[in-house]
Amino acid sequence: MGNTSNARTYKLGDKTVARIGYGAMQLAGPGVFGAPKDPDAALAVLRGAIAAGVNHIDTADFYGPHITNQLIREALYPYPDDLVIVTKVGASRGEDGSWVPAQAPADLIRGVHDNLRSLQLDVLEVVNLRVIEGTGRTPAEGSIEERFTTLAELQRQGLIRHLGLSNATASQVKEAQSIAPIVCVQNHYNLVHRADDPLVDTLAEQEIAYVPFFPLGGFSRLQSEVLDAEAHQHGLSPMQLALAWLLARSSNILLIPGTSRIEHLNENLAAAEINLATSMLSRIGQTVQKEAR
Ligand SMILES: NC(=O)c1ccc[n+]([C@@H]2O[C@H](COP(=O)([O-])OP(=O)(O)OC[C@H]3O[C@@H](n4cnc5c(N)ncnc54)[C@H](OP(=O)(O)O)[C@@H]3O)[C@@H](O)[C@H]2O)c1
Questions:
Q1: Domain that holds residue 199
Q2: Residue 130: beta bridge partners?
Q3: How far is the CA of 179 from the centre of ligand 1 (A)?
Q4: Which of 43, 117, 122, 281 could covalently link to 248 via disulfide, CB atoms 3.0 to 4.6 Å apart?
Protein backbone atom coordinates (compact mmCIF):
# COMPACT_ATOMS: atom_id res chain seq x y z
CA MET A 1 0.00 0.00 0.00
CA GLY A 2 2.85 2.41 -0.68
CA ASN A 3 4.58 4.12 2.19
CA THR A 4 2.46 2.60 4.97
CA SER A 5 2.75 3.46 8.63
CA ASN A 6 1.04 3.10 11.99
CA ALA A 7 2.37 6.48 13.11
CA ARG A 8 -0.19 8.62 14.91
CA THR A 9 1.31 11.94 13.82
CA TYR A 10 2.87 13.61 10.79
CA LYS A 11 4.42 16.97 10.19
CA LEU A 12 2.42 19.83 8.74
CA GLY A 13 4.69 22.78 8.10
CA ASP A 14 6.87 23.15 11.19
CA LYS A 15 4.36 21.54 13.55
CA THR A 16 3.45 17.91 14.20
CA VAL A 17 -0.24 17.07 14.10
CA ALA A 18 -2.40 14.06 14.90
CA ARG A 19 -3.20 12.20 11.70
CA ILE A 20 -6.94 12.57 12.27
CA GLY A 21 -7.94 16.21 12.24
CA TYR A 22 -11.26 17.85 11.55
CA GLY A 23 -12.83 19.40 8.43
CA ALA A 24 -15.08 22.31 9.38
CA MET A 25 -17.01 22.75 6.12
CA GLN A 26 -20.08 20.86 7.32
CA LEU A 27 -20.56 23.32 10.19
CA ALA A 28 -22.15 25.98 7.97
CA GLY A 29 -25.81 25.79 6.92
CA PRO A 30 -27.21 23.58 4.12
CA GLY A 31 -25.14 23.82 0.93
CA VAL A 32 -22.27 25.24 3.04
CA PHE A 33 -24.23 28.52 3.04
CA GLY A 34 -25.48 30.58 5.94
CA ALA A 35 -25.59 29.73 9.63
CA PRO A 36 -26.07 26.21 11.01
CA LYS A 37 -29.45 25.25 12.42
CA ASP A 38 -27.89 24.71 15.83
CA PRO A 39 -24.85 26.97 16.39
CA ASP A 40 -24.36 25.61 19.94
CA ALA A 41 -23.99 22.09 18.54
CA ALA A 42 -21.41 23.38 16.05
CA LEU A 43 -19.41 25.03 18.85
CA ALA A 44 -19.64 21.81 20.87
CA VAL A 45 -18.22 19.76 17.98
CA LEU A 46 -15.26 22.13 17.63
CA ARG A 47 -14.55 22.14 21.37
CA GLY A 48 -15.05 18.37 21.50
CA ALA A 49 -12.52 17.90 18.71
CA ILE A 50 -9.85 19.90 20.53
CA ALA A 51 -10.63 18.15 23.85
CA ALA A 52 -10.14 14.80 22.08
CA GLY A 53 -6.69 15.80 20.81
CA VAL A 54 -7.42 17.20 17.34
CA ASN A 55 -4.81 19.81 16.46
CA HIS A 56 -5.45 20.24 12.73
CA ILE A 57 -8.61 21.97 11.49
CA ASP A 58 -9.41 22.64 7.85
CA THR A 59 -11.55 25.62 6.93
CA ALA A 60 -12.15 28.42 4.38
CA ASP A 61 -13.63 31.87 4.72
CA PHE A 62 -15.96 31.04 1.82
CA TYR A 63 -17.70 28.37 3.95
CA GLY A 64 -20.84 30.22 5.01
CA PRO A 65 -19.23 32.59 3.90
CA HIS A 66 -17.38 33.66 7.08
CA ILE A 67 -19.63 31.45 9.27
CA THR A 68 -17.26 28.52 9.71
CA ASN A 69 -14.31 30.75 10.60
CA GLN A 70 -16.48 32.76 13.00
CA LEU A 71 -17.56 29.54 14.73
CA ILE A 72 -13.94 28.39 14.99
CA ARG A 73 -12.98 31.72 16.55
CA GLU A 74 -15.92 31.71 18.93
CA ALA A 75 -15.27 28.14 20.05
CA LEU A 76 -11.50 28.13 20.24
CA TYR A 77 -9.96 31.61 20.48
CA PRO A 78 -7.37 32.08 21.97
CA TYR A 79 -6.18 29.07 20.03
CA PRO A 80 -4.11 26.26 21.59
CA ASP A 81 -0.40 26.65 20.71
CA ASP A 82 -0.28 23.33 18.87
CA LEU A 83 -3.38 23.92 16.72
CA VAL A 84 -2.80 24.21 12.98
CA ILE A 85 -5.68 25.92 11.20
CA VAL A 86 -5.41 25.36 7.46
CA THR A 87 -7.48 27.63 5.27
CA LYS A 88 -7.88 28.08 1.55
CA VAL A 89 -8.45 30.93 -0.88
CA GLY A 90 -9.71 31.02 -4.45
CA ALA A 91 -13.51 31.25 -4.21
CA SER A 92 -16.23 33.52 -2.92
CA ARG A 93 -20.00 33.12 -2.62
CA GLY A 94 -22.84 34.74 -4.52
CA GLU A 95 -25.88 36.07 -2.67
CA ASP A 96 -27.75 32.94 -3.74
CA GLY A 97 -25.06 30.68 -2.27
CA SER A 98 -23.41 29.98 -5.63
CA TRP A 99 -19.65 29.27 -5.65
CA VAL A 100 -17.85 32.07 -7.48
CA PRO A 101 -14.20 31.75 -8.59
CA ALA A 102 -11.99 34.38 -6.93
CA GLN A 103 -8.56 33.66 -8.41
CA ALA A 104 -7.29 37.07 -9.56
CA PRO A 105 -4.39 38.45 -7.47
CA ALA A 106 -6.68 41.03 -5.82
CA ASP A 107 -9.21 38.28 -4.94
CA LEU A 108 -6.51 36.12 -3.36
CA ILE A 109 -5.14 39.04 -1.34
CA ARG A 110 -8.67 39.85 -0.17
CA GLY A 111 -9.21 36.18 0.67
CA VAL A 112 -6.14 36.09 2.90
CA HIS A 113 -7.22 39.28 4.71
CA ASP A 114 -10.76 37.92 5.13
CA ASN A 115 -9.33 34.81 6.82
CA LEU A 116 -7.02 36.84 9.06
CA ARG A 117 -9.97 38.97 10.16
CA SER A 118 -12.55 36.23 10.69
CA LEU A 119 -10.12 33.91 12.49
CA GLN A 120 -8.63 36.86 14.43
CA LEU A 121 -5.06 35.97 13.53
CA ASP A 122 -1.98 38.03 12.56
CA VAL A 123 -0.51 35.16 10.55
CA LEU A 124 -2.25 32.21 8.85
CA GLU A 125 -0.41 28.94 9.55
CA VAL A 126 -1.20 27.27 6.19
CA VAL A 127 -3.03 28.69 3.17
CA ASN A 128 -3.98 26.44 0.26
CA LEU A 129 -4.49 27.89 -3.18
CA ARG A 130 -7.78 26.23 -4.14
CA VAL A 131 -7.26 25.77 -7.88
CA ILE A 132 -10.48 26.26 -9.81
CA GLU A 133 -9.73 24.42 -13.07
CA GLY A 134 -11.58 21.12 -13.40
CA THR A 135 -14.96 20.01 -12.15
CA GLY A 136 -14.59 20.96 -8.50
CA ARG A 137 -13.87 17.36 -7.57
CA THR A 138 -11.33 16.53 -10.26
CA PRO A 139 -8.50 18.92 -11.14
CA ALA A 140 -7.49 19.97 -14.66
CA GLU A 141 -4.34 21.49 -16.11
CA GLY A 142 -3.73 25.25 -16.30
CA SER A 143 -0.85 27.44 -15.16
CA ILE A 144 -1.08 28.66 -11.57
CA GLU A 145 2.05 30.82 -11.77
CA GLU A 146 0.41 34.20 -11.23
CA ARG A 147 -1.86 32.92 -8.45
CA PHE A 148 0.81 31.05 -6.55
CA THR A 149 3.29 33.94 -6.91
CA THR A 150 0.69 36.21 -5.31
CA LEU A 151 0.43 33.90 -2.29
CA ALA A 152 4.22 33.53 -2.10
CA GLU A 153 4.45 37.32 -1.92
CA LEU A 154 1.96 37.39 0.97
CA GLN A 155 4.10 34.72 2.65
CA ARG A 156 7.18 36.95 2.23
CA GLN A 157 5.20 39.79 3.81
CA GLY A 158 4.64 37.58 6.87
CA LEU A 159 0.87 37.06 6.51
CA ILE A 160 1.18 33.32 5.76
CA ARG A 161 3.56 30.83 7.36
CA HIS A 162 3.21 27.92 4.91
CA LEU A 163 1.63 27.34 1.51
CA GLY A 164 -0.30 24.44 0.02
CA LEU A 165 -2.51 23.56 -2.92
CA SER A 166 -5.97 22.14 -3.32
CA ASN A 167 -7.63 20.51 -6.34
CA ALA A 168 -4.28 20.51 -8.09
CA THR A 169 -2.70 18.27 -10.73
CA ALA A 170 0.79 16.80 -10.34
CA SER A 171 2.17 19.36 -12.81
CA GLN A 172 0.55 22.24 -10.93
CA VAL A 173 2.22 20.90 -7.77
CA LYS A 174 5.58 21.00 -9.58
CA GLU A 175 4.90 24.48 -10.93
CA ALA A 176 4.07 25.75 -7.43
CA GLN A 177 7.24 24.16 -6.01
CA SER A 178 9.31 26.07 -8.56
CA ILE A 179 7.93 29.27 -6.99
CA ALA A 180 7.86 28.44 -3.25
CA PRO A 181 7.88 25.34 -1.01
CA ILE A 182 4.55 23.67 -0.27
CA VAL A 183 3.67 21.69 2.87
CA CYS A 184 0.42 20.00 1.81
CA VAL A 185 -1.86 19.09 -1.07
CA GLN A 186 -5.62 18.70 -0.48
CA ASN A 187 -7.37 16.78 -3.24
CA HIS A 188 -10.38 14.50 -3.72
CA TYR A 189 -9.34 11.01 -2.62
CA ASN A 190 -10.89 8.12 -0.73
CA LEU A 191 -11.23 4.33 -0.75
CA VAL A 192 -13.34 4.49 -3.93
CA HIS A 193 -11.87 7.54 -5.72
CA ARG A 194 -8.17 6.87 -6.17
CA ALA A 195 -7.05 8.85 -9.22
CA ASP A 196 -4.39 10.52 -7.06
CA ASP A 197 -2.56 7.30 -6.10
CA PRO A 198 0.68 8.32 -7.88
CA LEU A 199 0.58 11.84 -6.38
CA VAL A 200 0.12 10.46 -2.86
CA ASP A 201 3.33 8.43 -3.32
CA THR A 202 5.31 11.28 -4.91
CA LEU A 203 4.42 13.61 -2.03
CA ALA A 204 5.27 10.89 0.52
CA GLU A 205 8.77 10.67 -0.96
CA GLN A 206 9.09 14.44 -0.50
CA GLU A 207 7.64 14.28 3.06
CA ILE A 208 4.75 16.54 2.08
CA ALA A 209 1.33 15.95 3.63
CA TYR A 210 -1.51 14.68 1.42
CA VAL A 211 -4.92 15.65 2.82
CA PRO A 212 -7.86 13.94 1.11
CA PHE A 213 -11.05 15.92 0.85
CA PHE A 214 -14.29 13.91 0.86
CA PRO A 215 -12.55 11.07 2.80
CA LEU A 216 -16.01 9.64 3.57
CA GLY A 217 -17.50 10.50 0.18
CA GLY A 218 -18.46 14.12 0.96
CA PHE A 219 -22.06 15.11 0.33
CA SER A 220 -23.01 11.52 -0.49
CA ARG A 221 -21.56 8.86 1.79
CA LEU A 222 -19.22 6.27 0.23
CA GLN A 223 -21.32 3.53 -1.33
CA SER A 224 -19.77 0.08 -1.27
CA GLU A 225 -21.31 -3.24 -0.31
CA VAL A 226 -17.81 -4.63 0.19
CA LEU A 227 -16.97 -1.83 2.63
CA ASP A 228 -20.20 -2.33 4.56
CA ALA A 229 -19.73 -6.11 4.77
CA GLU A 230 -16.04 -5.92 5.76
CA ALA A 231 -16.77 -3.26 8.38
CA HIS A 232 -19.54 -5.40 9.87
CA GLN A 233 -17.22 -8.40 9.98
CA HIS A 234 -14.54 -6.44 11.88
CA GLY A 235 -17.00 -4.79 14.29
CA LEU A 236 -16.41 -1.34 12.81
CA SER A 237 -18.60 1.21 11.11
CA PRO A 238 -18.03 1.55 7.33
CA MET A 239 -16.81 5.11 7.86
CA GLN A 240 -14.26 3.95 10.44
CA LEU A 241 -12.97 1.31 8.06
CA ALA A 242 -12.72 3.89 5.25
CA LEU A 243 -10.65 6.14 7.53
CA ALA A 244 -8.47 3.24 8.75
CA TRP A 245 -7.74 2.34 5.13
CA LEU A 246 -6.63 5.93 4.40
CA LEU A 247 -4.39 6.00 7.49
CA ALA A 248 -2.73 2.77 6.41
CA ARG A 249 -2.49 3.83 2.76
CA SER A 250 0.47 6.17 3.29
CA SER A 251 2.16 7.77 6.27
CA ASN A 252 1.84 11.28 4.78
CA ILE A 253 -1.98 11.15 4.68
CA LEU A 254 -3.64 13.50 7.17
CA LEU A 255 -7.40 13.14 7.59
CA ILE A 256 -9.98 15.90 7.94
CA PRO A 257 -13.34 14.08 8.06
CA GLY A 258 -16.21 16.53 8.39
CA THR A 259 -19.16 16.19 10.71
CA SER A 260 -21.70 18.33 12.49
CA ARG A 261 -22.39 15.60 15.09
CA ILE A 262 -20.39 14.82 18.18
CA GLU A 263 -21.21 11.07 17.92
CA HIS A 264 -19.72 10.97 14.42
CA LEU A 265 -16.72 13.00 15.56
CA ASN A 266 -15.96 10.44 18.28
CA GLU A 267 -16.57 7.52 15.93
CA ASN A 268 -14.19 9.02 13.37
CA LEU A 269 -11.45 9.79 15.89
CA ALA A 270 -11.64 6.21 17.18
CA ALA A 271 -10.43 5.06 13.73
CA ALA A 272 -6.92 5.99 14.92
CA GLU A 273 -7.08 3.01 17.32
CA ILE A 274 -7.97 0.42 14.69
CA ASN A 275 -5.29 -2.21 14.38
CA LEU A 276 -6.04 -4.21 11.26
CA ALA A 277 -3.12 -5.72 9.39
CA THR A 278 -1.97 -3.61 6.44
CA SER A 279 -2.30 -6.65 4.18
CA MET A 280 -5.96 -6.99 5.22
CA LEU A 281 -6.65 -3.29 4.54
CA SER A 282 -4.85 -3.54 1.23
CA ARG A 283 -7.02 -6.49 0.21
CA ILE A 284 -10.19 -4.61 1.22
CA GLY A 285 -9.03 -1.62 -0.86
CA GLN A 286 -8.50 -3.81 -3.91
CA THR A 287 -11.89 -5.51 -3.51
CA VAL A 288 -13.66 -2.15 -3.21
CA GLN A 289 -11.86 -1.01 -6.37
CA LYS A 290 -13.00 -4.11 -8.26
CA GLU A 291 -16.56 -3.54 -7.10
CA ALA A 292 -16.46 0.11 -8.27
CA ARG A 293 -15.35 -0.87 -11.81
N1 LIG B 1 -10.42 21.70 -0.97
C2 LIG B 1 -11.63 21.41 -1.38
O3 LIG B 1 -12.02 21.67 -2.50
C4 LIG B 1 -12.56 20.74 -0.43
C5 LIG B 1 -13.78 20.21 -0.90
C6 LIG B 1 -14.61 19.58 0.00
C7 LIG B 1 -14.24 19.49 1.33
N8 LIG B 1 -13.06 20.02 1.78
C9 LIG B 1 -12.63 19.88 3.18
O10 LIG B 1 -12.58 18.51 3.47
C11 LIG B 1 -13.33 18.25 4.64
C12 LIG B 1 -13.93 16.85 4.57
O13 LIG B 1 -14.87 16.78 3.52
P14 LIG B 1 -16.42 16.77 3.76
O15 LIG B 1 -16.74 17.18 5.15
O16 LIG B 1 -17.07 17.51 2.67
O17 LIG B 1 -16.77 15.26 3.48
P18 LIG B 1 -16.51 13.89 4.28
O19 LIG B 1 -15.62 14.11 5.44
O20 LIG B 1 -16.13 12.89 3.27
O21 LIG B 1 -17.97 13.52 4.75
C22 LIG B 1 -18.72 14.34 5.56
C23 LIG B 1 -20.14 13.79 5.57
O24 LIG B 1 -20.12 12.50 6.18
C25 LIG B 1 -20.99 12.47 7.31
N26 LIG B 1 -20.26 11.76 8.35
C27 LIG B 1 -19.15 12.13 9.02
N28 LIG B 1 -18.77 11.19 9.88
C29 LIG B 1 -19.67 10.18 9.76
C30 LIG B 1 -19.82 8.93 10.39
N31 LIG B 1 -18.96 8.51 11.33
N32 LIG B 1 -20.87 8.15 10.01
C33 LIG B 1 -21.75 8.53 9.07
N34 LIG B 1 -21.66 9.72 8.44
C35 LIG B 1 -20.62 10.54 8.78
C36 LIG B 1 -21.24 13.91 7.68
O37 LIG B 1 -22.57 14.05 8.17
P38 LIG B 1 -22.86 14.45 9.70
O39 LIG B 1 -22.67 15.92 9.81
O40 LIG B 1 -24.26 14.01 9.89
O41 LIG B 1 -21.89 13.67 10.52
C42 LIG B 1 -21.08 14.63 6.37
O43 LIG B 1 -22.31 14.67 5.67
C44 LIG B 1 -14.37 19.36 4.67
O45 LIG B 1 -14.94 19.52 5.94
C46 LIG B 1 -13.56 20.53 4.18
O47 LIG B 1 -12.85 21.09 5.27
C48 LIG B 1 -12.23 20.62 0.90
A1: 9-292
A2: 166
A3: 31
A4: 281
